[in-house]
Every structure is written in C-alpha cells, then in structure tokens.
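Model it.
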Amino acid sequence: MTITAQSVWDNCLSFIKDNITPQAYKTWFEPIKAVKLTDNALSIQVPSKFFYEWLEEHYVKLLKVALIKELGDNAKLVYVIKMENTYGNNQPFTEKIPSSNRSSLKSQEVDAPLKNKNPELKNPFVIPGIRNLQIESQLNPNYNFENFLEGESNRLARSAGMAVANKPGGTSFNPLLVFGGVGLGKTHLAHAIGVQIKEKYPEKTVLYISAEKFTQQYIESVKKNNRNDFIHFYQVIDVLIVDDIQLLSGKAGTQDVFFHIFNHLHQNGKQVILTSDKAPVDMQDIEQRLLSRFKWGLSAELQHPGFETRIAIIKQKLYQDGVEMPENIVEFLANNIKTNIRELEGAIISLIAHSSFNKKEITLDLAKKIVDNYVKHTKREVSIDYIQKIVSDYFQMDVETLQSKTRKRHIVQARQLAMFFAKKLTKASLASIGSQIGQRDHATVLHACKTVDNLASTDKQFRKYVEDLGKKLSN
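Modeled.
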C-alpha cells in the first residue's frame, strides 16, 4: 500500500481522536488538511495562524507522539497556514512554518518566527511622567469568562479571547476583531478579555472604550488644540479595547488618528481588541488602509446560540439569581427566544420579577404571557433560513432548488433576492449569508445585492417581486 500524506494524517487522527474529547477533536483537528509528504516531513494546512499557535500551545506533544508513531524518530511536521491576503485582491496565500523546536520534533534548522515585533521598543512620543498616571480601565468585572458560556456559536471567538488574555500582544491575532449581531456577547467577551488580563498582568495598562466615546474625545481634543496629547495618551496603553468600531464609519478625522494610534501600538507589541456588528469586508465608509489593518489578526464571528447553549445560559442565570424553574419552562424559553442572548436574559428577569411581585408560582402559562408580551415589544431579527423559505414559496420552488448551482434565470433571481433581503434584514456578514445560501462567497452576495438594486429601478415586474417579498418578510 502506498504511503500518502492523507494516509499518514488519517492514522495520526485516529490516534489523536482516542486521546482528546470529541469537542476538542471537532474544533481543532477536523479543519486540518494533509497537504504533502516529503521523506519524513508531513505538511498539514491549518486555517489560520491562530490554529497554528493553539496546536503548538496545547497539542504539540500529542502531535509528536502520533507522527513519530507513523514516520519514526526523524519525523518532521510543517504547517501550511492559509491566510487572507489583506492587500486588496481576495486570493488566499500560504506561509510554511516548521513545527516549533520546543516540541522536540525534528524540524528545519531555522524556525520561521510568527512575530518579528520587539516588545521592548521604546515609545518615542511618551510625555515625561505620563506612565505615572493612573488610567482607569473602564472594565466591568461582571463580564468575565466564567459567565461567558461556550457553545458552537462562539467557540472560536471565546478561544481566541482566552489566548489573547493569556498572552496579550504575544499572539499573531492582533488585532482580535469580534463581530456579530446585536445581543450575542461581543461587549461581554471584550470586557472578559480585559478583566482576565488585569488579573494576570496587573502592571499592564488596559483601557476599554466605545468608538463613539473615542470620537467625542478626539473632537474635544481638536477643539482644545491638544490633539497630540490625545494621541500620546492612547499610545501608552498596553491593551486597547474599542467597542463598536464600525461607528467610525464616515468619520475621516477620527479614522486618521486611530490609524496612527493603531500602528504605534501594533508595532510596539501592544494588544488591540475590536468589536463590530459587521465583518471587515462589510464595513462601509471605513478607509481601506484601516480595513487592511483590521484583517491583520483574527476576525472571529459570534453567531446565534444553539438550543443547548440557550438552555445553559438560562440555567446559569437562574443559578446566579438563586431561582429554581421547571425543565419544561426552561425549554419553552429556549425554544421561543432564539436570536438574542440579551433578549433571553431580559425575558428571564421579567419572568422572575412577575413571579416575585405577584407572589405567583412560575408556570408555563406565565412564561407564555411574558414571552408573548416580550416578543411583541421587541423588534426581532428575521433568520436567513426564514428568508429562504419565504422567497422559495413565493417563486414556487423548494429551498434546495434556490440553493442549487443552476444558472436558470428565474432561480438565479430568486437566489439573488434571498441574498438581498438577508443583507437588508439580518446582521449576518456577507460571507455568512453566502455560506448559508448555497455555499457562495461574499463577492457573490455583494454582486447579488447590486443586481437587485439595479433591476428594481429598471424592471417593473422585478420591482413588484421586491415589494411583495418586503411585505411578506415584514409581517
């Protein structure tokens, strides 16, 4: 039997699978691809530098044992890292990195280091004595990793956050950009990272600020003619956390000053953490040079929590408040509030309050009243699955046909309309929309949205499609 890279890696995976949890195997090993086998060197492709660092940090011994078992004592492991090209064309490129020498796994003589930053570089712009200033972190200690529950929807973002918290400025995901819809935990995770850094490295200066407040401070500094002092202040921060970075959209002056602050921090090995309701590719009116820097590190999406995660969130909230609730009511809440963690927690608080103030037992009927009332007064986000079903029904086809690869005009138009409304009515990224509507890429979704806009303004029949579907989806 011929030994191939795939056969060697399959054997390694069998061994690894028996020695770690199913969840860890699915998260960290299923995405890896065997690339080639040259002599005793196995090349494997990992999705990002984040994966590379995580494997080296947590699973290097396991990888060593598995590979030596297959290829002998002279085995070598080479990582091929697939990264997004941040210079404007969306073609992927790769970087080969030999396994770290700390693994004792034989490797090339020269390591290709991931980091070429010198954290000891001195800040040439520091105002004398500014290091003695006490800078309040603005962190909320109630937002921590302990109460940020892990699930399929947030595993990558949470793991990345933990890694950054343990080694701020010392990983390749700098900046760490966490993005996702309203109420999914972006702010919570940003605070949790900062809180853990302060606990582990009390000497580090950590600052959390909203993009809106950052803009206000900048405008004030310009009015008072102390713009340089404003810049110098931010340049001495060790860990800068900026919430809702998409709010810099259209603010050229603020973007310019943030660009210079970001560059200084990044070059000096400081950590930058950003949150946004959009992926970088979907941000509008943000300078390209700034967007390219947002893509330097890791962009991790927070998605809607699955049923099991929603159950866990409810139970944790009840435990914190010292309240017991029947399992059928917990499941009812989890089944009926699906898209927003903040809404879910708000419904639980309302239910507990009604029960307490009215001295009534928490029953399923009470839960139904609270949820009905809560949902009525809450603007809900339509799901991409729901949009696809409505569009498919309207054009009298099934969802599988809508998602298919066919180029028939009426099916293509239906698919483009589904993408258009998904972008308009949800907070999902273009990449996420494309993935859910027939495994397309973000460029296809962008093209679909432009096509719908053009046809709606020139084709009377097509405009009626848009109007009809808009009404159906708003009901």
